[in-house]
Design a protein that fits this description.
By secondary structure, this protein is mainly α. The protein has a domain of 99 residues. It has five helices and no strands. The longest helix is centred in the last third of the chain and has 41 residues.
Length: 153
């Protein structure tokens, strides 16, 4: 075995060099360009598409919505209409037709109040967690909240 002519040589692997001469083996299994929409036709959240098909100036409309959402715009219109409706005589012929808008206004106000109460309950729960996990930070935050509440009076 000490004879160099009898020592085994590591096998030579020609495949890296022969692969260069072959076409891409992955081309048989995968597309050359991967371009596909994810969840085509699906919408998540409150999405409104503004395009040239439904707006004469979609860029302007996008800028307006970026400044004030559709919800905020509708809320202001409904609030203003509720004030105007309240000024009308209750027994006018139009009053019955406008009652639906007043009911919508009241429903929206109730939803806003419930959402605010829920957020405040969440703050209370977060404060309780903070009090048990970091007393110093709890005191700092509680003091800031007390000051904000005093200023709001």
């Amino acid at each position: 075995m000490d004879n160099p002519s009898q020592t085994s040589k590591a096998p030579s692997w020609p495949w890296p060099w022969t692969m260069e001469k072959l076409p891409n083996p992955f081309a048989l299994f995968a597309p050359q360009a991967l371009n596909q929409p994810i969840n085509p036709g699906w919408t998540f959240g409150n999405v409104i598409s503004v395009t040239e098909q439904n707006s004469t100036a979609p860029d302007t409309e996008r800028q307006i919505v970026a400044a004030d959402s559709y919800g905020r715009q509708l809320g202001r219109v409904i609030d203003a209409l509720a004030v105007l409706i309240a000024e009308r005589p209750k027994n006018s012929p139009e009053a019955k037709a406008l009652d639906g808008l007043l009911e919508l206004h009241d429903k929206i106000d109730r939803i806003k109040s419930q959402a605010a109460a829920h957020r405040l309950e969440r703050i209370g729960a977060d404060l309780a967690t903070l009090k048990s996990s970091d007393a110093a930070e709890y005191r700092r935050v509680a003091k800031a909240l007390r000051e904000a509440l005093d200023e709001a009076r």
